[in-house]
């Protein structure tokens, strides 16, 4: 098994943290997104969408999408459970993972890729043709980050972890979003005491360094 990874990117980080929590180790191959290794045919055959992470199984099957990769690891190694322990908890994990993906990762990606000169013609990840940045989307991304941070604060005022009483992929996903948001100069607001308490807890787990 091999994980196609890029150490600096937030989406593969989510998978690495998940694996670290389960104590799973696999060979990793760094795909340098900065020099465009992900746009080369060798990677294209593994993932035509040209994004990392990708998990290549020993039979050659390639699984893209970080959450799908986590789902695979959860199935082959259920302990410790990170995707829910009963129907309610499983649904809440999935709900908060989706909040992270649609309202968190996408908001930060919009803010970053539509404002940074490095992405001026690479506004969408994985595209091999030039995609120009749209500055208004950066603004909208920033506003969406505010909404996402507010929602985290509301939720974490009620429960210790996003899906309830236990740490899960929902927390890993949100942790990766919060750290990714720093790339566009956004930090959890000082007034968000519940989120800051949660952040301190989840980011001090050894897996956060993965
Ligand atoms: N939803 C996907 C997102 C994958 C994604 O967008 N990966 C980024 C790195 S965080 C990438 O490969 N970008 C390539 C590029 O910038 O062209 C997942 O979680 O696996």
Structure in a nutshell:
By secondary structure, the protein is α+β, with helices and mostly antiparallel strands. The chain has helices spanning 10-22, 41-44, 66-76, 87-113, 135-156, 169-181, 193-203; strands at residues 2-5, 27-30, 54-56, 62-64. It is built from seven helices and four strands, in the order E-H-E-H-E-E-H-H-H-H-H.
Q: What can you see in these coordinates?
A:
The model has no long low-confidence stretch (mean pLDDT 98). It is globular, with a radius of gyration of 17 Å. It is built from seven helices and four strands, in the order E-H-E-H-E-E-H-H-H-H-H. It has two domains: 2-76, 3-Layer(aba) Sandwich (Glutaredoxin), CATH 3.40.30; 87-209, Glutathione S-transferase Yfyf (Class Pi), Chain A, domain 2. The chain has helices at residues 10-22, 41-44, 66-76, 87-113, 135-156, 169-181, 193-203; strands at residues 2-5, 27-30, 54-56, 62-64. The chain is an alpha+beta fold and 210 residues long. The structure holds glutathione. Glutathione is lined by residues 9-11, 33, 38, 51-53, 65-66, 122, 125-126.
